[in-house]
Amino acid sequence: MQVDFGPAGDGRMVVALAVLGVLAILAWQTIEPGKFRSVTLLLLGFFAFRVTLGRLRSR
Questions:
Q1: How far apart are CA 44 and CA 38, in angstroms?
Q2: Domains in the chain: how many in total?
Q3: Is residue 41 part of a domain?
Q4: Do 44 and 27 form a contact (C-beta atoms < 8 A)?
Q5: How far is CA 45 from CA 1, 4, 16, in A?
Q6: Spatial distance between the Cα atoms of 59 and 43, rounded to a whole number of angstroms
Q7: Quick check: 29 and 40 in contact, CB under 8 A?
Q8: Cα-flanking dihedrals φ and ψ of residue 11, to 5°?
Q9: What is the residue range of 56's domain?
Q10: Residues 32-41: pLDDT tens digits?
Q11: Which tens digit of pLDDT belongs to each residue from 7-29?
Q12: How far is it, in rounded angstroms, from Cα 59 to Cα 7?
């Protein structure tokens, strides 16, 4: 199985979402509950949404 890392391939999206997921887990575990953790998770969610939206537009 070969993963396509080209502009229209799924490989880049999978890697980007995996990195954002790992960052979200690290932020959840290391930042104390409060405003900063909420803003951090909101920003990571926004980036994940943009990655997904960009993939849907390229189809």
A1: 10
A2: 1
A3: yes
A4: yes
A5: 29, 24, 12
A6: 25
A7: no
A8: -60, -45
A9: 31-59
A10: 999 999 999 9
A11: 667 888 899 999 999 999 999 99
A12: 11
